[in-house]
Queue: 3 jobs
Job 1
Amino acid sequence: MSKPVIATASLAGCFGCHMSFLDIDERILPLVELVEFNKSPIDDIKKFSKPVDVGLIEGGCCNSENVHVLRDFRKNCKVLVSVGECAIMGGLPALRNSIPLRECLEEAYLNAPTVDPAERIIPNDEELPIILDKVYPCHEIVKIDHFLPGCPPSADLIWEALNALIEGRPLHLTYDLIKFD
Amino acid sequence: MTEIRFTVDGRPCLAKPGQTIVEAAKANGVYIPVLCHYEGLKPAGSCRICTVRVAGRYMAACTQPVTEGMAVENTAPDLEDMRKSLIEMLFVEGNHFCPACEKSGNCELQALGYRYRMLAPRFPYLWPVRTVDAGTPLVLLDRNRCVQCLRCVRGVRAKDGRKIFASVRRGPRVAIEIDHKLAAKLTEEEARRAMDLCPVGAILRKETGFVRPIGRRKFDHTPIGADVEKGIGR
């Protein structure tokens, strides 16, 4: 029997959730036996090459590329999981949600004291993804099946959730595992 | 007659005349979740987290006195889900960035989120534009985190009895204002009380953030309400 396939992505996140995933420490050995990684920064596979059982999403959506990747994950993953506060509620990047986008860009690229006066320009190359008006949690863009809160979610929570999803059993989330910080 | 007999989810309980359902249930080791309610303050009944059902009717348990023979429903699944939805609404209608909040771990709204296993709210986030008032010496008022429970309005007063916090405007624009002149005279003890009264991180004593490390905070290992239920399983 082939191993369950998992994929991961970091959208508008800080990779802290991926780091927390690696905090499973020596359990990384059984993990290698347990699953096969597909598209993920962990193995640097850039494109989906087969159907994936469990997709783990870190970070919310702050630009068009995030939305594209998230929709790609939804299309290719049977089960999609929002991992961490940014994926669930926008997190730190969403602090800009109460500031108009134009103001944010002008502050960063035109008015900040460290900007070279000769090169004041808001980046507008067509290769760049378009910034969204707000940072959106993943479940406001696509259907999300499970949520793992925390900043970051503890390695124990990620490990428990991954095992439960692979075995097809309900997640056993104790009080100590559910934290919003 | 000095004691009133009533039941919570079928469990026989005793109350003193005049006691509210929340108070009487607590005396009988039954936890009814509250947020705007604070022992010693006049009940406001504004958040409705404590909603119970009696004879098919919904009522705020923090304002409703117990009457003889009352059969209170407290943990019916639909009631619990309604409470959970109220908690979710409070999360989406403010800007609650738990990871960056000084009150995290000691926050009653967050603790209710944990107790009700809120993994993600069912409602879309509203991202309201709210302001911060740091214009008083000891206290910081961050309206992003305010849930309009009015505990500060009811509980924090100057020596002559005047209110230091007040609620202004109505509906979705309702906000808490702080009287700068009166607040400038707050003592250290009064400032701490104001912070402790606030269930969330909207009122903070300045320069005391993150004093208790993760793992030693109020709700890190102990669910809210566990003290009430101690010894009596649900």
Job 2
Amino acid sequence: MFTNAGTSSFTAFLSKVAPEMLPGRRPLPPGMAADMAPHATTIVAISAAGGVVMAGDRRATMGNLIAQRDIEKVHPADAYSLVGIAGTAGIGIELMRLFQVELEHYEKIEGAMLSLDGKANRLASMIRGNLGAAMQGLAVIPLFAGFDLAAADPAKAGRIFSFDVTGGPYEETGYDAIGSGSLFAKSALKKRFRAGLSIDDAVKLAVEALYDAADDDTATGGPDLTRRIYPVVMTATAEGTHRLTDAETAAIAEAVVSGRMENPGG
Amino acid sequence: MAMQFYASPEQIMRDRSELARKGIARGRSAVVLSYEGGVLFVAENLSSALHKVSEIYDRIGFAAVGRYNEFENLRRAGVRMADLNGLSYDRRDVTGRALANAFAQTLGAIFTEQSKPFEVEICVAEVGSTPDGDELYRLTYDGSVNDEPGRMAMGGQAEAITGVLKSEHRSDMSLGEAVKVAVKALGSVGGEGGAARTIAANQLEVAVLDRRRIGRTFRRITGAPLTALLNGGAAEEPAGGPQTPAVPTGEAHKPTTSAASADLERRESEDES
């Protein structure tokens, strides 16, 4: 089963040899299942000069309960791209791991990386495969962003793609947010985003936007100063993907919180 | 009445072995050896696109000589098996030994069941935390597996090349020394009248499994860093050096790190501090 000339796609390979490992291939009993599993919430992405920033809060909810305080929803998809997950947490994490393997697998088999658009299309078709479960309330919506190595202008190499439950992808200009708090995060970004931001400014802006989302959405967690749980912030630039250390995000989050002490609206 | 020709099983196996050995001996050779910083692969290869040396998984590399289409088929099978096991269990549960066993089964079945055996010889290498922990498995066309002691040569005139390796290789060599020994061993055969040859950088395919990295350890050494190593330049660490797997190599379009490994890296480096 491994030696057929076959495909460079890992999910296509799985669909032949182990279809039960693909999230969209499991038969589900009828009925809504929306409240049976934790939900991951808000992710924001901002394109900046020379790259892109993605940040996510740390809360997962189950109905009115906080299911997890320190879930990590922003991950590197490969060396130059990032993926954030909102929606049903378990399926989202499974899908994200599968997407990571998909990209690495293609790279190893073909000896070259997929283009950024190719990666976004692969992710779209994986989301589409989960449509049945999404219609029963187990939807997963990712946000995908990366540094486009083929971009003519390095200043515009940071690109963001959003998706819906039927797939996508839709390329976003400047910034985007997904999840329950995305409405408030996007409103904050709409007023404060400027084209050509530096990466550092974009990081601060992302943490501010998450604060605004947490301010108005109960399912989004703000910076938790007592437990030292801060947003996950990652960047993708020409140097590759990078996750800010806990100390760095702590400093930024504490600055944002102290700014809000004086002016709660930011 | 037509006569059935009879060939004894011994004769059939001998014929197949001879075919495979001849096919392998026609090709250029490859050398795999462990050094202080990891496992080094050096293959004579005129093509820069069709690889004899490749990555299978985080700490596992693959080198082959013989017919390209046949070992490429095995390489893809290895990548698929490794990625499937890594996704089902954990990245640490993918081992070189399991892969070597799977390759041995496949090669053995082809040798006995098909009319033509694969004309390939393969090395599966797994890098350990010290040179003693490195595992090199030699797989031959009939499915036999050998665990090699820190160095091996494959392809035409492998015995002569192994002789040079045996006398000059030490497991505590630096990368620069190891590359020089490997190239000297490869060049010790095939010259005019049995003399040594010099092999240019553009005829070599060089890659390492870097034991100091966490996550995906495989990277190719090409272009200027390779020329510097061959010319006796200090054993500089190409492309970033240890502990920086997030930084892509000189081949900007073919980074050797990824996602899951970057996650892993962060977690372990935090544990250390």
Job 3
Amino acid sequence: MKKLYSNKLVILSLVLPGILVFIFAILAPICLSVYYGCMDYSGMGKATFNGIDNYKMLLRDAAFGRALLNSLLLAVGFVFIQHPIALIVAAVLDKLQGKAEGFFRCVYFIPNVISVAVIAYLWKFIYNPDFGLINNILKSLGYQEKINWFSPNIAIWSVLIVLIWHGFGWGMLIYYTGIKNIDPVLYEASAIDGANQATTFLKITLPLMKPVIQINVTMAIIAALKQMETVYLLTNGGPGNSTQFAANYLYQQAFKAFRYGYGNAIGIVFIIICLVVTVGLNTIFVEKKEA
Amino acid sequence: MRKKLLVGILAVCMTATLLSGCKGKETKTEDASVSATQQEQTEAEKVEDTAEPITLTVFSNLPDRKNGQGLVEQKIIDDYMSENPNVTIEVEALDEEAYKTKFKAYAMNGMPDVVSIWGQPSFLDEVLEAGILEPLNEADYADYGFVSGSLEGFKKDGKLYGLPRNTDVMGFYYNQKMFEDNGWEVPKNYDELLVLGKKIKEAGIVPVAMDGGDGWPLAIYLTDLLVRVDGNIKDIVSNAIATGDFTDPSIVEATKLLAKTAQSGLFQVGYDSQDYGTAMNLFTNGQAAMFYMGSWEASMALNEDISEEVRNNIRAFTMPPITDGKGAQTDIAAWNGGGYAVAAQSEQKEEAIKFLNYMYQPDKLSKYGWENGVGMSAQDQSAYMTGNETNLQNQFTDILNNATSVSGTPINDCGPSVFKTAMESEIQSVCNGTKSVDDFLSVIGETCK
């Protein structure tokens, strides 16, 4: 067996599929994007080289700035609202035991099972000022004014609520699995020492969940940066660009505005931002581990 | 033992094959004995049978194949296939936005044979520059009864690349019964429209259902107002797009009026984030008194999904004139937008053009369209007036016949697609007051430079 693994041809045959997938599915598209990002190209006909003009334009593009700001807001929402709640809910579920545990685990995960298109239209109807659920509840409580939940000032918050609600199940499920892996002996020991529920959570669950939290936070931030489908179907970035997100803006520019070159430039900047964020987060977490 | 069994099975198979061969011979002998007359009769069928099978692909922006324009298109396709049994037509239909995205993907990797197109610079300029469409011989269409000027949007450098399907007129649909029950009257000028809007709102009804989420109906509304302000807008718009300078007083005035209208509450709450279907449902469900949309929705009067009380009472009027404006109510926002073309790289080009020409035979698109109440064709439809037209059809026909001028392509479709995209997004901001009129005009101007 050892002899087999030291054969370079065997090693190559084992590594080659992975390398090929990486080259053709990741590296080549990125290289093509870099190439088209330096072109004035509508996606049809001839492309003309324009150097870094697309990137210069991107720096002055207020809509792209707004899209990045919205992505940042969503990332903050995920990290400071969605995940703390998901972690607490996971801890509570763990304590529930029995049928209730399974039931609520399913209930909290349901939004993740429903298709994005259904979610978007469901919330469109919930938010509708004329026949939406929220305004009708408010009306039955005596509030007659029709609230526009997608008015430019509050539209982004309405969108964030949907996105946080929709992604909640995944975060909770990962935390729940992490909690389930904690050795019950530790809880028994803490109970014998007289620790209450809050102390047990803060002193045992939370410290042992650190690796899971790190993975979840990294995934949440990347998900916030990549956000596209729900926003596209819910508001398409509007009104104006008030709910614009980077991926949606990329799509609009490349496929609606026929600015394929510019769209690719957005894609490249987008990749760089994602890489910087991932490397940054890894550095922070590694430093903390060492400390 | 096993060997014997195998030999047995093989022998049975061989005998069966031989017998079937003899039977085939028998049939052929019988065939040879049919009479000469029958032979002649089947000759034509044989020619058709032996004609090489052809598969045409049609890429359409009409996904609803059971109602309206999509039904008309499908009927023509079915007719063509029954008249040409060797031709199979495969249809791929997507709604407009998805259609335009996939159109671009096809442009890179081989287009279907016959495609839907828009005879407007925002769509056609890039498409023609890329050489995707096959030029057509304009002289072939001399007898097709196209309305004067309707082919212009589909031409470049004197060559014709597509044919228009409709003549589109923009207007306010209104619920006549609701108006009568509440004592409201069709406004004679724009100020009356704004006053009427307030009255309707006070009655707890949405004055005008507007598809503001898509941006383009707002842009057409702006075009309509610009026509009221200046009468003839073609030069103003083309100059603004050529120079990127949108500070012409007429454009500024029309934009201010649009912003004032939107902020006065003429449209439903949240109009700037609501889509076509939501806006239309408000009107067809009786929650809105008016609906600003094109003549292609005249088929609402025949749509049995809409309650009888509403569908029998839908009427239309065009944008009322404004005080001191140069445009009259008979200067209308109308254009020839959608149509069809043949792909330059089609492998079945000859058959595709034959099918395109078949679609535009006067008794096809025009006739079927009129019978199904889907609005006005870009061809002369007078021969198909039956006297059983809906009130809406008659109203739109009168509006078009009595028009003193037509706006041509709406402002958002006059420039490149980057201008269109920016305008349809930014117009929401100027309407809801998050962007000033000057900033809006400056931003859309930048996209033209």
